[in-house]
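Consider the tokenized backbone below.
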């Protein structure tokens, strides 16, 4: 969390960290001085320890406007499963891909990297006689926010 806050704060992003109240208690996981340093770089909201914090995350993201992005390791599968029909689930996945920033440690493990949210819909797109097709050259299991980042461009002659 500390690395993520520092990395995003360097980009002058306005940050809201959603956590649980146990983070305020000085412990081996949550050092008081580190929490204070993070609170100087971001706003914090602490939910009850037994709360389902995903609802806060979704509400804060939606309420903050269409340009708001969120970072979480959660894949939000439980929320998608609660949606009543396939169209709504499809729209949720599309919204998720456009707003969720994915983070992962660097290969050396010394820093953190982010994959930005998509600014476009990852579906076959056409303009005139040109087709743009997203593809993956290796099959692998993926989560709903992970989509191919390679595109095949085909032009009819």
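A designed sequence for it:
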């Amino acid at each position: 969390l500390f690395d993520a806050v520092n990395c995003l704060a360097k980009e002058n992003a306005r940050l809201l960290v959603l956590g649980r109240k146990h983070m305020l208690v000085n412990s081996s996981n949550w050092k008081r001085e580190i929490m204070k340093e993070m609170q100087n770089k971001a706003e914090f909201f602490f939910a009850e320890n037994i709360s389902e914090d995903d609802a806060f995350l979704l509400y804060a993201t939606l309420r903050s406007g269409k340009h708001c992005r969120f970072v979480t390791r959660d894949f939000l599968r439980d929320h998608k499963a609660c949606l009543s029909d396939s169209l709504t689930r499809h729209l949720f996945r599309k919204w998720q891909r456009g707003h969720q920033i994915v983070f992962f440690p660097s290969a050396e493990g010394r820093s953190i990297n982010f994959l930005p949210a998509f600014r476009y819909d990852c579906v076959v797109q056409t303009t005139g006689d040109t087709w743009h097709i997203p593809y993956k050259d290796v099959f692998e299991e993926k989560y709903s926010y992970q989509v191919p980042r390679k595109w095949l461009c085909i032009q009819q002659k």
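The chain has two domains: 1-118, 122-156.
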